[in-house]
Amino acid sequence: MKEELQKIIIGQNEVIEQLFAAIFTRGHCLLEGVPGLAKTLMVSTLAKILDVGFKRVQFTPDLMPSDITGTNVLEEDDSGRRNFRFVEGPIFTNILLADEINRTPPKTQAALLQAMQEREVSVGQETYTLPDPFFTIATQNPIEQEGTYPLPEAQLDRFMFNIKVGYPSSSEEEQILMATTRSEKPEVRKVLSGRAIVNIQKLVGSVAVSEYIVKYVARLVRATRPKDPQAPPYVAELVDWGAGPRAGQFLIQGGKALAAMDGRFSVSIDDVRRIAVPVLRHRIATNFQAQADGITSENIVERLVKEIPEPDIPKLVR
Fold first, then answer.
1. For tag attachment on the chain, is the N or C end more exposed, with fewer CB atoms within 10 Å?
2. pTM assigned to the model
3. For every one of its 318 residues, what pLDDT tens digit does the chain have, with 9 covering 90 and above?
4. Angle, to 10 degrees, between the axis of helix 269-280 and the axis of helix 245-261?
């Protein structure tokens, strides 16, 4: 998968790794970055190398919930009888690209909530199950605030990872310019079917997680909460509220995916540390003091990862 993706996407190794980890654990991703960093191209290329359904929705201020979920249409049959028929919206796919998700009002953003959590859609009195596998990969531009509707915390919490897409290095940018200004375009091939993805998800779910890892994850998540006695003093000073239990679930699931992709049979502390920032940074709300000092939630997570001690391993007594 990585080889095929890198035919089109140059660099961004951490972003690609986190995207794969989310896919193999049934998670959703929020890609954040300035325009022109190939966020949309990355997702559309990912869909091309997977033999699954793919739909792209460009979120705009006038987009309605029914434009995503679908709607009931009144039809008349040959005998003159009228019946309602449900016409599926673009959400009925395997990979949904929600492009510039913060450009649409809360009413339409909320249409994704049920789909992302329960993987089903309610229209009228009927509830429809979404295909399996199903992932939402959303993008947003962090620098433009005019005409945008910031995602509510409840919806941010549905995203497993908040992935920051950064600028390429100097050598990577030269490669990008060389590759994209040529007339011939590389072709990618499909390497994984929907059924294979579901099987890999089951395999990743069976990766072992020790009590030692669970204790470390719980300790790390609880340290983000300002009112928790285990939290360091600077968290109480700089944070309004911290991460909930879902963050711990995603840390363990993401750790399983990294271990499986590395060919290991159990999760290590380093796996948890590698994904702590993308899992936690959108689940911590900093206060005015932190903003005045230029401290972000990412800075706090990085500091916690360095300072939170590993649990003691009980020694065997003969």
1. C
2. 0.86
3. 888 888 888 888 888 889 999 999 988 999 888 888 888 888 888 888 888 888 888 888 888 888 888 888 888 777 778 887 888 888 998 889 988 888 888 888 888 887 888 888 888 788 888 888 888 899 888 776 666 788 877 788 889 999 988 888 898 888 888 888 877 778 888 888 888 888 988 999 888 898 889 999 999 999 999 888 888 888 888 888 888 889 999 999 999 999 999 988 889 899 999 999 999 988 888 888 888 888 888 899 999 999 888 887 766 556
4. 130
Domains in the chain, ordered, with CATH?
A: 2-181+190-194 (3.40.50.300), 208-307 (1.10.8.80)
With tokens 């391993």, the residue in question is: 313
Residue identified by tokens 């600077």 is 234
